[in-house]
Amino acid sequence: MSNPEVMKFEEFISKIIRGDIRSISRGLTLIESGSELSEVIVDGISANCGRAHRIGITGPPGAGKSTLTNLIAKQFSSQNKKVGIIAVDPSSPFSGGALLGDRVRMSEVWMDPNVFIRSLATRGSMGGLSVKARDAADLLDAAGYDVIIYETVGVGQSELDIVKAADSVVVILVPESGDSVQAMKSGLMEIADIFVLNKGDRPGAEQSMSNIRSMLMMKFEHAVKWEIPVLKTIASEAYGITKLCDSLTAHYEYLLSTNKLYSNRAKYFNERVEEIVRNKILENIMDSSGYFHNRSGNSNDETVPTLSPYQAAINLIEKIKNSLTQK
Length: 327
Prior knowledge:
Blueprint: H1 3-17, H2 21-33, H3 36-45, E1 53-58, H4 65-78, E2 83-89, H5 107-110, E3 115-121, H6 131-142, E4 147-151, E5 168-173, H7 179-185, H8 188-191, E6 194-197, H9 205-220, E7 230-232, H10 241-258, H11 260-288, H12 309-326
Parallel strand pairs: 1-4, 1-5, 2-3, 2-4, 5-6, 6-7
């Protein structure tokens, strides 16, 4: 960038750090779109990151994640904390954009000046959590938000990568038959810092809570110092929200007092760097092979559909090898 462009960009970064809403929105748009400037933005704000409490909200579809996220944000806002919500939606198969639009379901905090809500598309990312969501959280962190909430799509077993982005993970379940057992099978038990049984006024709620506590006792009796709470909420009545937010604050204080906050963040930072390296190497190799120029789906080659995907992959690997040896 030329000097005037550098000065203009530095001012843009400065506005983000000062909390200018228009600049924050523009920065998030550039990050989500994969613009070449997105990496420069993350570089520019990195020195101002690390102060926010990052919370992951996950669980099976229909558990009430959006409603509880709305209420948690409202509670923290009442404590004069700035809250950023990153609602990770399934991608539209046509536009690639966010499909559900969680902001529609968060009307109570939509106009709250302390709350900023952004829907991001998963864009095919495994695990339900967009790769770009972590960059977006960095931006909100640098912009001075005290609490950042990831609300994920709730896709089951592959949801586990949320632990790599959040300091505190809340797993939300409902009393209906099978949900609790499925959560344990999917590995959500291992990532939960807090369990919430939502819709706790439904039949079977107390039994479900008892089952979760029993499984936690068997699994973690001597393994951890943090005693994982099992809380009951009724989102439609805002019941249990204060206790949930108090538990989230207590968990964050526990992480700080034991230095686990920084050791966890260092571990997942390294994994994030490795992921970026892998993606960049793969992208560069495949781009040099011409792969990205030939995958638009507009090919008239009638032999392509007759290949198995494995044979097509082998052919691509051979093409990459040949292009590298020729260099």
